[in-house]
Amino acid sequence: MNGYWAVFLLPAAGAIILFLTRKNRVIGPVLMASALIHFAAVAYLLSTGYDPAAGSWICPDPPGKLFLAITSGLFLATAGYTTGFLRRDREKHPRRNDTNYAGCLLLFLSSMSLACTSGHLGLYWVAIEATTLASAPLITLHHTPRSLEAVWKYLLICSAGIAIALLGIFFLATAAGEGAGDMTIQGLLGNAGSMDLVWLKASFILLLVGFGTKTGLAPVHTWLPDAHSEAPSMVSALLSGALLNCAFLGILRGHSICAAAGMGDFSGGLLMIFGILSMLTAGVFMIRQTDYKRMLAYSSIEHMGIIALGTGAGGLAAAGAMLHTVTHSAAKGLLFLTAGKLVWMYDTKKISAVRGIMSFDPVTGVFWLGGILAVAGTPPFGVFMSEFIVLKGLLEKQQPLSVVLYLISLAFVFVAMTRLVIPMSFGRPSGNRQRPEAGKGDHSILGPAALALTLLTAGLFIPASLWKVFTRIAAFMGGSGL
Amino acid sequence: MNGLAEILIMLLMLTNFRLLGSSRLPACISTVAFQAVLLGAITLTTAGWRLSPWVIILTASTLAVKGVLLPALLRKAVRDVGISREIQPFVGFGTSVLLGAVLLSVCFIISRPFLDSAASEQSRMLIPGAMFTIMSGMFIIITRKKALTQVLGYLAMENGIYAFGTSLAVEAPFLVEIGMLLDVFVAVFVMGIVIYRINQEFDHMDTHKLTELRD
Fold first, then answer.
1. Is B191 in Cβ contact with A170 (below 8 Å)?
2. A461 phi and psi, to 5 degrees?
3. pLDDT tens digits for range B116-146
């Protein structure tokens, strides 16, 4: 047993405490304590550079460590908001017991942590399917017809998608032939040279389609806008900022095995095609959007597209894509939490019904407009930086067509988003709204503020040691091994 | 691969036609349960000399979950929501069977390159058989309207993948295999709860009427 077991066992223990006590008042302390301890444990494990014995099941690879850090940070940033949200929401539904809901939230964190730390593809698959099951109840807090529809799509599409990914894993095992017994990432990378290429190619396609469904890559993204818009905002933030990365990890691992087998151009090319297709699809669906949470959901599809594109191109673009996972998660966490506040203030998700946020509540207005500008790729925020590095990487690789399509879709999305959001932010406040009041012990401002700070810092200055982490991950994806 | 296993795989292929052609949910549930029994038998016949206690425990638990527990759960769901037929699917039952035959031949064609490069004496029937089961499952998910029938499609898909995995000597560690089984079980369980809620909210479980969310 090594230290990384703690990062998925601790939240699970928190969940069990909630399931057993069944008291609404323990939710806040247990959630906060779990989030803090999880964050501290992850920070400690990553800072000491501790590595489990090679080839064990719980043995995160470099991208797994990065995504684990993102997941942990984002969960901590949303934990305060979650407590406040549930308490406020129970004022409308006084007799509801939220311990199961909060417990599922912790199980969700636990399964995502397991996915990131798993060093065995089969175990990774089990964890990803567990994330679907733990997060499905989170989407439908009020059992409204719309949220039930969203949950049904999420469950069925993602389960079928992940089943295809399992077939991909079996294909990979068949490709490995003699080494089929060893499905650890390390073993597979070591065996890659002697793999059967027909099976390997088919395996990567299945992994890409399967985990791509869960990552939200077009054209298999159809569950994503519904689930993201119907879920309570902190769950949307976690789905978008943490879960999508965790699912992308599977594609990334398949890609690095392909690269190690000398098939990097094949898998990278496919990733680039899916990436550009996702960016374009997101832009098209965003332009006439009437629901601001759906707009953010399509923005997630766009950004997963950017990450897939950069990863596929490799080299500097791949390092940029890894930086982009950090900046996108921070931006999307900030935006969804702010959107949650807007839903509460205006009691609607319609873009046309929200006007004058700036004059009504300046703090929310600044977070909202600033977050949108950041996510659309405006300097000086981090997203601009990572998008720029991806662009530089694409230019270095001399991919003129993808550079052109990349820039076109970025410009398209920028126009689409700002066109929708500027009227929301300025003008006269629309009617039928409630003034936001900071309740006692409501720390929900801290999370968004921390995320905004991260976003701004990443745009201005990236420490050399952190950049080294990204280049190391890029090298891992190039097939250089652990 | 011996003759017995080939017969079992052919039976597996035939069960898919029953799934594609039947409108009655109880019949479909029994068919999926029968598939699980076939899978267990295929595992035991192909395991041969590799037969270890773990394989037996795993086969037994697969049988218990996929052959007994899940079908019982689904039958209860059929009783609770009071719907036992799939009425007017997007693709009719006769057409579904015909398309199933087309799918089967497609599976034989696309599995050809894999047969050539498959490492050992793996069955010439198994790969197309497993693929056909997966494809029929997906076909059912796409073309049927009732949420319960879609769950059956998902289970058929899982069965196909399981057939592929166990018989191609993919040996995942015992815990991982149990984890996979547990995931399928919980997935169907959660789907069952959602179906129950949908039925309460809408008085139906036709997923094609769930059209509030779209762009």
1. no
2. -160, 125
3. 765 455 567 888 899 999 999 999 999 988 8
Q: Show me where the domains of chain B are located.
A: 3-209
How far apart are alpha carbons A343 and A298 in whole angstroms? 18
Residue ranges, chain B, pLDDT below 50: 119
The distance of A392 to chain B (nearest Cα, Å) reads 34
Nearest residue on chain B to A287, judged by CA atoms?
Answer: B215
Measure the CA dihedral A459/A465/A469/A470, to 10°. 30
Enumerate the β-bridge partners of residue A120: A184
From chain A residues 168-197, the ones with a CB under 8 A of any chain B CB are 170, 173-174, 177-178, 180-181, 183, 196
ipTM summary value:
0.91
Cα gap A258→A254, rounded to integer Å: 6
Tokens (6 digits) for B22: 């039947």
State the pLDDT confidence band at A439, using cuts at 50, 70 and 90. very low
Measured CA to CA, the distance from residue A63 to residue A476 in angstroms comes to 8
pLDDT at A399: 84
Nearest chain A residue to B134 by CA distance is A164
Range of the domain at A109: 5-480
What is the model's pTM?
Answer: 0.93
Number of structural domains (chain A) is: 1
The angle at the Cα of A80, spanning A77 to A83, to the nearest 5 degrees, equals 140
pLDDT score at A101: 94
DSSP lists the bridge partners of residue A161 as: none
- Grade residue A438 by pLDDT with cuts at 50, 70 and 90: very low
